[in-house]
Amino acid sequence: MIHENPHIPDGAVIQGIKAQTYDTTTYTLSFRDPAVRDRYRFVPGQFNMMTLFGIGEAPISMSSDPTCQESFDHTVRAVGSVTRALTRMGVGDVVGLRGPFGNQWPVKEAEGKDILIVAGGIGLAPLRPFIMHVFASRPRYGKLEIFYGARTPSDLLFTDEFAAWQSQPGTRMLFSVDKVPEGGVWDRTVGVVTVLFEEMQTRPGGAVALICGPEVMMKFAAFSAMGAGFAPEQIYLSLERRMQCGVCLCGHCQIGSKYVCKDGPVFNYDEIKQVFGPGM
Ligand SMILES: Cc1cc2nc3c(=O)[nH]c(=O)nc-3n(C[C@H](O)[C@H](O)[C@H](O)COP(=O)(O)OP(=O)(O)OC[C@H]3O[C@@H](n4cnc5c(N)ncnc54)[C@H](O)[C@@H]3O)c2cc1C
């Protein structure tokens, strides 16, 4: 945490803006105060509470390489008051940030193992720091297989990076879209992301699966992973819940005895399977 008081936001300057899709943008940010900038570190899977002064606050995951210390990225889909107001900001404007909050993807647990990543839509953003970490520490991890699905081809994020990702040793990426609009060009799979399990090469024994996307997608991806041989303890997901404080005070993100802001957002499937109900 940057401050002893986790409720105080620090000013961060927007240094770069990159459109990913028609509704999703990556903002590169750097803390205004050099002391805060030097202190700030995050691990893959964590998030900040982003404040737009006079408008509100929203939890947003870091989407960049966690080893880059000067700046970091937030990839944001404009859906509501804070995220839409962000689209009206420009380079040089200042937002407030509190964080980093939450736990991390199973960086340690995955060491020495093959990894299956299943991402849906904007769910690839919180997974990107983990993917960057695996690429930076390649010998410590086994094979990496990524299934990435989106509603349409124009909803895929980070498309300009996929060639580089796929050229990394031991890396395989498969894509699917739910539908291709009339006149659209798409020569990969059409269907929900779970259809890609039919082509899975990851051997579940000793592997881990990381899943992030809309809750219904995570439910069926977890079911598919278990159908393919993953045990519940080998599956990790990142949950989204409405939250205000980020530090277990407001109770908005509570699930049973767990708080998404502090015990999560990354959970082992076995810990939170009640969220997804019966099915397997
Ligand atoms: C840990 C975590 C990480 C996240 N990371 C990202 C990320 O990297 N990128 C990203 O784009 N998003 C991310 N989100 C989601 C993001 O925080 C939400 O979309 C947030 O609500 C956006 O805030 P807003 O003010 O723009 O939207 P809001 O005004 O909160 O509206 C968002 C949507 O929720 C609906 N809504 C509003 N109020 C309520 C209510 N009381 N109950 C139910 N629905 C309501 C609205 O109609 C709208 O559809 C993350 C969420 C969590 C919990």
Please give a structural write-up.
By secondary structure, this protein is an alpha/beta fold. The chain has 2 domains: 10-101, Elongation Factor Tu (Ef-tu), domain 3 (Beta Barrel), CATH 2.40.30; 115-238, Rossmann fold (3-Layer(aba) Sandwich). 17% of the residues lie in helices and 29% in strands. The chain has 6 helices and 15 strands. The chain has helices spanning 34-39, 81-86, 124-136, 162-166, 215-227, 269-272; strands at residues 10-19, 24-31, 47-52, 56-61, 72-77, 94-101, 115-120, 144-150, 171-177, 189-190, 208-212, 235-238, 254-255, 258-259, 266-268. The protein has a 7-stranded mixed beta sheet with strand order 10-9-8-7-11-12-15, with helices on both faces. The chain is globular and about 50 Å long. The model has no long low-confidence stretch (mean pLDDT 94). The structure holds flavin-adenine dinucleotide. Flavin-adenine dinucleotide (FAD) binds at residues 47, 56, 58-61, 75-77, 79-83, 122, 125-126, 240-243, 265.
Overview in brief:
This protein is of the alpha/beta class and 280 residues long. 17% of the residues lie in helices and 29% in strands.
Rg measurement, Å: 18 Å
Instruction: Provide the low-confidence segments as ranges.
Output: none
Assign the CATH class of the largest domain.
Alpha Beta
> What fold name stands as the CATH topology of the largest domain?
Rossmann fold
Biggest beta-sheet profile? 7 strands, mixed
**Average pLDDT metric:** 94
Strand order across the largest sheet: 10-9-8-7-11-12-15
Enumerate how many helices there are, as a single number.
6
Global shape: globular
What ligands does this structure carry? flavin-adenine dinucleotide
Distance between the termini: 39 Å
- H/E series, N to C? EEHEEEHEEHEHEEEHEEEEH
Helix content: 10-25%
Please state roughly what percent of the residues sit in beta strands, choosing from under 5%, 5-15%, 15-25%, 25-35%, 35-45% or over 45%.
25-35%
The total of beta strands comes to 15
CATH architecture of the largest domain: 3-Layer(aba) Sandwich
